[in-house]
Amino acid sequence: MSLYKSGQDIISFFSTLVKATQIYDVNNDVVQGAAKKFISYINSLFTTTSYIELLRYRDYIFFNRVRLRFEIEGYTSLQFINEKFKRLTIKSLSFLPGVSQNEIIKFASVFKEDRDSFLKLYAMEKFKFINIEFSSGEDEIPEFFQNGEQIKRSYFKALKVTKNLMQNLWTKQPIDAKSIRKVVYTLIDNLVQDETGLLALTTIKNFDEYTYNHSLNVGILALAMGERIGLTKINLVKLGTAGLLHDIGKVEIPKDLLYKIDNLTNEEWESLKLHSLYSVRQIIKTRGLDEIAISALIAAYQHHWNYDGSGYPTLGEIELRPIFYARIIRICDAFDAMTTPRPYHPISYLPPIAIRVVWERRNTYFDPTLAKIFVQLLGLYPVGSCLELSSGEIGLVITQNLGYFDAPVIKIVINSKGEKVDGRAIDLSLEKDIKIIRAVYPQTYNINPASYFKVG
Description:
Structural class: alpha+beta
Helix content: 40-55%
Order of helices and strands: HHEEEHEHHEHHHHHHHHHHHHEEEEE
CATH architecture of the largest domain: Orthogonal Bundle
Number of strands: 10
Low-confidence stretches: none
Largest sheet: 5 strands, antiparallel
Mean pLDDT: 87
Strand content: 5-15%
Number of helices: 17
Distance between the termini: 28 Å
């Protein structure tokens, strides 16, 4: 059995036991039965591993260093344990060989309490085979995480590969098709390691290199959605490739039109819209016609088709819905485009406004189910959003709160006196007295959101 499946089972058995102690006396058959199953499962794991650890970091739960995803199956149990760890300020919980049924029942009955009672009872009981490490309040990076610089290097390497591919196509130079495949696999691995860290890097917006940044950011956002949905790795590769290559047809658009500062004429808009069709030709040139390329070229052709049948390229009287990958990329493409300054649209949407647009246009532009997943992924205030608070401070969203889409974790970057600071982190789901007043443009305060993230 995989570590991932074992982690899911541990979470399920443990949450069932804790919930049982919330309802029944510890001697009740329901509690005893739940404890017996939990201990039996733990002992079976100890035949192949010397330790069992649950660790919380950035709203992620890890089992023996493997991150557990919040999927439909087991979502309630994982959310319950995540929330308890958060409320009790637990960083990690370990079970050691020798833990007994009585000890686990006693711990579960303590674990169910509020923070003050828990701390008092845990100190009194002195559990022999159950260890807890408490959080210091800082966003502590687990030792087993690779250096955060690796994710940054991966991002900029992927950006370089994307840029080189498109520049070579522009200048009719030889291309390295394998490099795109390597980039996609690396991005998938990075998402598994630290979804928040990689998503934070999509806040990087380069006005002069919009096409390259945009292609990579759409690929990352699409992969994050695919991972949340639970796509297999090969399907993630198809989706990620489609995301990276969706705009590749722009190499056939004259650069003076692509980077025109003035408003485009109707004729120029019609020429620009041909990039979806051109992308089909370029993907065939880049990858041939393997299974991954076919998915990518269909998604690229359809990525401006809307859920209600409108959009471009038009098909006249033919009724055809965009494929699943194209519907995902439609949302990711629109969001990144809205939040990125472009030559003909220098003032971008604030991320919370762009999220609102995605939500309001579900059922018309966007698949309603996928729009909901996207909003859940990024939150109402996506990572990198700059927010004015009721305290008079300015905060930067540094991570989301599972189950609290309107109450992220923020870092204070401007104090109430208007001074730029490297301030404290605030969990708005816990700090009920601090309210979000509105989203603001970070440029107003000379803030570069991407520079604040410690990816790790």
